[in-house]
Amino acid sequence: MLKQFPEADICVSIVWIEMLSSDNLDAARRMAASIPDRRVKHFHDPRPARLAGSAFGKDLLRRGGGPAWDVYLFYAPGATWEQDPPPPTEWYHQLGGGLRADPERFAGGRLNEVLGDAMRRLTRATSAGP
Amino acid sequence: MRSIDARSVALLGLLVSSCTASQPLVKPSPAGELCGGVAVEAALVVLHVPEMPSAEKASDVVDAFADQPGVLRALLDPEAKLLSLLVRRDAGLDSNRAIQVLRGAGYSARQASDEECQRAEAAIRHLDTIEIPTAPLDVDTTAPFSETAAIITLSDSLRPFRDHFNANKDKLRVVAILSPT
């Protein structure tokens, strides 16, 4: 998505969350190094707390869904994070068929296409102004 | 981990040589705009700081920079009067008009700890600038050097993440939460 929109003035936060047993800070650093785009800021969300995953999971996932991960969230300009993260303008996930999250938001094998479409819509909307 | 050799220093360095000895070190002032608007990515910033009459000893100059947020290490070479600043990646020193170090300044052979990064990150929110009375120089834009990208661990607070999110409120923002493996 970043390569598709090299000139887009966007702010990307990637949170590397420890969900799998193989996830750790070193793995997060390696992945972060593989995405050196200047628009990206990397965060590491360690177990057991998984603060970011839990904070975003509260609204996005169904009850008992645990921390949010494998999610891609878009926020239009103006959205502010006060106590809790604001609801995303659009979002998609790779969490499967719907037990944990809204099945309408499941991107599945079309992730690149779905994210690209969202970017095109939202960057057009941003350029158009209020 | 790679180390920086002399050629790297030369290639990556930014040399400021026109400090006037009569002007004292200026106390930090509120953050201002970029000087010249030049985006530079450098692993190492090298400043040539002539002896300052207000500095009683060389370490005074080092100290003036060393306690600035985002500066991990400052080293003064008294012989050549070179002040080397090692600045963490994405330290947000956009407002430092004198040294023109912007996002992308990376680490050197020493990898900063997460605690250092988090302290620097928290302090950057209210970063003051150091103004050294000198004209901006042409700089070579070089590729950033880093074995690994900077990453902020959210071990006991989401604040760094939240602050970053809100600091870019005028942009379209994307958040991805992913397993690294």
Textual characterization of the structure:
- The complex is a heterodimer of chains A (130) and B (181).
- With 130 residues, chain A is α+β, with helices and mostly antiparallel strands.
- In chain A, 28% of the residues lie in helices and 18% in strands.
- Chain A has helices at residues 25-33, 51-60, 111-128, and strands at residues 10-17, 40-45, 71-75, 90-93.
- In chain A, strand 1, helix 1 (25-33) and strand 2 form a beta-alpha-beta unit.
- Chain A is globular and about 40 Å long.
- By secondary structure, chain B is of the alpha+beta class.
- Chain B has four helices and seven strands; from the N terminus they run H-E-E-H-E-E-H-E-E-H-E.
- In chain B, the strands form two sheets. Chain B has a three-stranded antiparallel β-sheet, covered by helices on one side. In chain B, strands 1-5 form a two-stranded antiparallel sheet.
- In chain B, a hairpin with a 4-residue loop joins strand 3 (71-77) and strand 4 (82-87).
- Chain B starts with 5 loop residues before the first helix and ends with a strand.
- The relative contact order of chain B is 0.21.
- Classes of the chains: A alpha+beta (130), B alpha+beta (181).
- Chains A and B meet through strand 1, helix 1, strand 2, helix 2 and strand 3 of A and strand 6, helix 4 and strand 7 of B.
In short:
The complex is a heterodimer of chains A (130) and B (181). Chain A is of the alpha+beta class.
